[in-house]
UniProtKB/TrEMBL annotation:
This is Hydroxymethylbilane synthase. CDD domains: HemD (cd06578), PBP2_PBGD_2 (cd13647). Its EC number is 2.5.1.61. One of its GO terms (molecular function) is hydroxymethylbilane synthase activity. It comes from the Bacteria. NCBIfam families: hemC (TIGR00212). Residues 221-277 form the Porphobilinogen deaminase C-terminal domain. Residues 340-517 form the Tetrapyrrole biosynthesis uroporphyrinogen III synthase domain. PROSITE patterns: PORPHOBILINOGEN_DEAM. Tetrapolymerization of the monopyrrole PBG into the hydroxymethylbilane pre-uroporphyrinogen in several discrete steps. Belongs to the HMBS family.
Length: 525
């Protein structure tokens, strides 16, 4: 045991306390050690860039570099701060027996503010912020950074703050837990909170064998599950993810949570498995969360700091959002609002020989006013596959459909039976269809089935492309935005309107939202 094990540590009070614990344990086993506080990466030299070595983690990067440079033999970390994927060549050598896993609220004066509508709580953790706002949505959460001592001092100095949240293990280990503190048993801790972890080079057998004697198996099992859950959700410190596993009566108990940053959305999961049969817990629970909206929540969190580059003038479903390429940061809202009109019964009292329906909104208006049996239409002509599908599901067989109104009008001129047609339309319908028909001596009776109201908003300057689904969405957009963008259009009719305002106009292969999404993705590949 002649080799001196150099123990790398950050130089904060808590980091030094943790390193000294490891030093004491190793020396009790007969090993020689030396503490090496590492301040910064400024003087450290590497012959490879950080990304090639897989180095991440704001709290661990300095020690990772020092180890790869052979300036230290082991590094001591709070395991909750360690990225779930370690740098190339570095491995987890041991996890010490876990301390207090809880979060702790340090408060001023008394706890009465917990029952108040208004209160101010300080924390630098997204996870703590989200869980606090989930439980106390009317409270204000302010940012708090720095080491434990500095954060406690900031709490004392800010008169408007009611309390601040700390890791119970952190303030307990250095003897700074004040009397005015309570554990937050309801708050799910960070994955691996309360655990101290040792890393070493995977080639250093002497050090690995030494650290192996310090490893606490139960803590290793539980923290590994928690970190696998975190890794599967692709979280890290940028997402409000909590996880806690513990062993009781030969069973592994797990609970996890993913929240939106503001705490308004929350997905919980629990699982219990026999010890030895627990290896799928993390994967099962992560998939459970993902399938219940977790993917959308994570994407929203990841994209929060990104600038929107594509805007949709129609809101998306969850399934549609998942179709976008990773380079697309999408926002959406409905740029037109639909108001269904009352249609007088006299218009459908008798069978109508020829009917034109150009949108699903017209279908909804008809079905709001009448039952399907009242709608006696001999020939129904439609625009769009989805309108056709809805008509055939709700009203009756469609005689013919085209992808745009102009094509349908030309078809009707050549093939329609009779010389009259009833057109259920919007107050903002285009002129193409009725104009072509009337020029060819076909009488058009227009019934205003619904009203289209513009409800656009001004988009960010970062928006490069806009998705349009009707001429009305184009008109609504240009009312509030005088910018040049790529116009991704659902069909020719929409594209014709877009060409009046934009130079780069692209048309989807088929008139569906999914096809417009495909058009956007092709641009960003």
């Amino acid at each position: 045991m002649s080799k001196i094990i150099r123990i790398g540590t950050r130089d904060s009070e808590l980091a030094l306390w943790q390193a000294k614990i490891v030093q004491s344990l190793l020396e009790n086993l007969g090993y020689k050690t030396q503490l090496v506080p590492v301040k910064s990466t400024g003087d450290l030299v590497l012959d490879k860039p950080l990304y090639e070595l897989g180095i991440t983690g704001i709290f661990t990067r300095t020690l990772d570099i020092a180890m790869l440079n052979h300036d230290i033999d082991i590094a001591v970390h709070s395991l909750k701060d360690v990225p779930t994927v370690l740098p190339n060549g570095i491995v987890q050598a041991a996890v010490l027996k876990r301390g207090n896993v809880n979060d702790t609220l340090v408060f001023k004066n008394n706890e009465e503010f917990l029952g108040s509508k208004e209160a101010v709580i300080a924390t630098g953790s997204l996870r703590r912020r989200a869980q606090w706002l989930n439980r106390f949505p009317t409270h204000t959460v302010v940012d708090l950074r720095g080491n434990v001592n500095l954060r406690l001092q900031k709490l004392e100095n800010n008169e408007n703050w009611n309390g601040a949240i700390f890791a119970a293990a952190g303030i307990g280990r250095i003897g700074l837990r004040p009397e005015e503190a309570i554990n937050l048993d309801w708050m799910i801790p960070a994955p691996a909170q309360g655990a101290i972890m040792i890393t070493a080079l995977d080639e250093d057998e002497f050090v690995l064998n030494a650290c192996k004697e310090l490893n606490h198996e139960e803590t290793e099992i539980c923290t590994t599950i928690e970190r696998e859950f975190l890794n599967k959700l692709e979280g890290g410190c940028t997402a409000p993810i909590g996880a806690l596993a513990y062993i009781k009566d030969e069973e592994v108990n797990f609970k996890g949570v993913l929240l939106s940053v503001d705490g308004s959305k929350r997905i919980d999961v629990t699982r219990v498995k026999k010890l030895g049969e627990h290896h799928d817990i993390a994967n099962f629970c992560a998939n459970f969360v993902i399938e219940r909206g977790g993917k959308r929540l994570m994407d929203t969190i990841k994209n929060a700091s990104k600038k929107t580059n594509v805007y949709s003038t129609k809101s998306f479903t969850e399934a549609q959002r998942l179709l976008f390429h990773e380079k697309v940061t999408i926002e959406s809202s409905d740029f037109i609002k639909i108001s269904l009109n009352r249609i007088h019964p006299r218009f459908v009292k008798n069978e109508i020989q020829n009917v034109i329906i150009t949108s699903k909104n017209a279908v909804e208006a008809l079905l709001t006013n009448f039952s399907p049996i009242e709608l006696q239409f001999k020939n129904i002509y439609c625009v769009g596959r989805r309108t056709k599908r809805l008509v055939e599901q709700k009203i009756g067989k469609v005689t013919h459909f085209e992808n745009n109104a102009k094509k349908l009008a030309n078809y009707l001129v050549d093939y329609m039976e009779g010389s009259e047609v009833t057109y259920f339309c919007s107050d903002l319908r285009l002129d193409d269809l009725p104009t072509i028909l009337e020029k060819n001596n076909i009488k058009v009776t227009e019934l205003e089935a619904y009203q289209t109201k513009y409800d656009g908003l001004k988009v960010e300057n970062s928006v490069e492309g806009v998705m349009f689904y009707s001429p009305s969405t184009v008109e609504s957009f240009v009312q509030k935005n005088k910018v040049e963008v790529i116009a991704f259009c659902i069909g020719e009719t929409t594209a014709n309107e877009a060409k009046k305002h934009f130079n780069d106009v692209r048309i989807a292969k088929v008139p569906t939202v999914e096809s417009v999404i495909e058009l956007v993705n092709e641009h960003y590949i």
